[in-house]
Amino acid sequence: MFLFVPGLSIVAAYCVAGATGHPPRDTGLSSILMPLAVVLLGIGLVAMLPIFSRKLAQRAAHSTQSISLGLAMRRNEAEPGGALRVATGLVILVFAASLVQGVLIELDQVSRNTSSVQTYNISLAGTTADRQRAWEKVKGVRGHAVVMRSRSRPEVDRWVPSLEAVVATCEQLRSMVQKIDGCVDGRPMRLWDPKHVAVDDNKPGARFPFDLWHDGQRRVVQVTVPRAVLRYSDDAGLPVFQSGSVLLPPSAVPAGHRPDSATLTLLSSSAPETVRQVLDGIGGVDPTTEVDTPGVVVTSLQQITVVKSLLGIGMVLGLVIGVAAYLVAATDRAVERKPQVTALSLLGARPRTLRAVQVAQVVVPLAVGLALAVVLGKLAESSYLVTGGGAVYWDGAGIPLLLACALGAVAVAAVGALPLVGRRIDPELIRRD
What we know:
The chain has helices at residues 4-19, 27-63, 67-78, 81-111, 129-136, 170-176, 272-285, 298-336, 338-346, 351-388, 399-417, and strands at 117-123, 143-149, 164-167, 179-181, 189-192, 207-214, 217-224, 229-233, 246-248, 258-259, 262-269, 291-292. By secondary structure, the chain is an alpha+beta fold. The protein has two domains: 4-112 and 302-430, no CATH class; 117-295, no CATH class. The strands form two sheets. A nine-stranded mixed β-sheet has the order 4-8-5-9-3-2-11-1-12. It has a three-stranded antiparallel β-sheet with strand order 7-6-10, with no helix packed on it. The chain starts with a helix and ends in a 16-residue tail after the last helix. The relative contact order is 0.18.
């Protein structure tokens, strides 16, 4: 209780603070209290297992009318330390897995784009038309457009305006933004989003030169800012296009010509799986391509993938090793109790009853420990998320995996305990007694 109660108190205090909408602001103090609470709660959980097992065994033995359950609970009451010896590894594994789930959520919040869509900007300088078409057909991409920039003439004494031209059809534009009104194919129009500030320098009637290349020959195309306005709505956190740009039909660019300064903008869902799929597809076309992903940190996505892989491998190996160690320890305890089992057989206990006793002796302490580990682990995870300063405090995504692992470990331990009771009675085992 000396370790368990302080750790649980700190964790519960953080959970209450998060539930009432008063998360702690002092990160320095939380950086000390949170690891301390996790260590105290983990060690206290292991130390409290014999106490919980003994109390549960006492109550079950007094209330049950089953002979097999009564014998099993009396044995656990007499040897509560056996629960600590055989269940510690699996309990700590499940408890730690909940904390790792919290770390994954924090990484996901850091790397996730808050918008519903994700854009990818690829410079078309030095690329070919075949690569551009391959990027536009990458799996997961639901929209694409080419954004050209007019010729820049840097001058020291004054600001030289520039213009962005979106080369796309109306259908392509609809796949990139949420809503457009009055788009006509083949007609240049000035894009305007009321929610974003438009460029004031791009007045209707202003002309901007765009450099195009074909077989080493440069060609200058003059684009006049049209008076026709195309209103569109873009709910993305980061705008896909700049308000005030000009929408040009693909026919405005001569066949075979490549722009001198242009960017291919791809659009997909912001789901992490889709973002990784699109990035893999872009890299599959050209591994040396530089991709700008506004609103998302690609390195964090890679870290999440690595941590999830390590978590999965660790859980599988931990469960295999933990269940094996549990079976070895349970077998050792069964061998130690062979004289008592033989005595009960001579008194008339059936083998089926003795097997039920053995399974109950093995399963009940493990089930109690794993249940406590799941509950306390989720509390520790929630307190970690509260102190992390993110938007997610409560997570239920990891509970099915933890419960599946816990039930699988209990099932394997129960099956492994069945053959520990033999069919034959060996009087030599109780001759000494």
